[in-house]
Write the structure tokens for this entry.
Amino acid sequence: MLRDLLIDKELFNELRQRALNSEEGENSPEEVELLEKAVFQRLKKKRSVKKYKKLGVSKGDLKEIIALADILGLDAIGGQSNYELAKEHPEWCTICGRCCRESESIFIHKDELNILLNFNSDLEKGIIRNKLYPEHYELKEIQPCKFVDPETNCCSIYNSRPQVCRSYPLVLIESNGKAKNIINLRHSCNYSVQLVLEKSIILFDEAVRRLMEKK
Ligand code: SF4
Ligand code: SF4
């Protein structure tokens, strides 16, 4: 009910399906479900349904809002983009190192290859053609990435790391001919969980505001 005040139901279903089918975000339904559970636990503490019960708000509404926050940038309702929000909150990264230890592929765009090699000449042997997009590249040694320090979880080529590492947990994709940052939905990444939580709080408040306006 609340979500319908923010987005048309059919459009939501279409966007949701597209997001689940997207290879770029690698957001499997299982992973999305785990992330949504993690966000739900935190959102319940931030926005108690009891307070809004009189308006007909339920826990189901919270879950629907979270599902919307997974896929909708706040810029769609006049707020910050995913990029702006993530940039404003570097503290949400707990430096757990999972993204460097567990990523299934570390993508290198063909246009950044030379720049990376200029800074790290020894990287040449560590780069192979990308398996999905052969015009681009990827790091050879992953899970863990050979550049992650096992004790500190820090990156030994931090200042010249690939773009995909700089923007994590956001992933740059092309949508309708435009570049767009989506969240890589990982329940084990605090940065990702916090981003969806923050968006959920803002979307929830906006939907309640619109609901009260209607009453
Ligand atoms: S981005 Fe996420 S997975 Fe990577 S170190 Fe930060 S919290 Fe951990
Ligand atoms: S290059 Fe650095 S930031 Fe990227 S995955 Fe490896 S250790 Fe992590």
Notes: Residues 190-214 form the longest helix (25 residues). The CA atoms of residues 55 and 215 lie 9 Å apart. Helices lie at 9-21, 29-46, 59-71, 82-88, 98-102, 113-119, 163-167, 190-214. The chain has two domains: 3-93+185-214, 98-171.
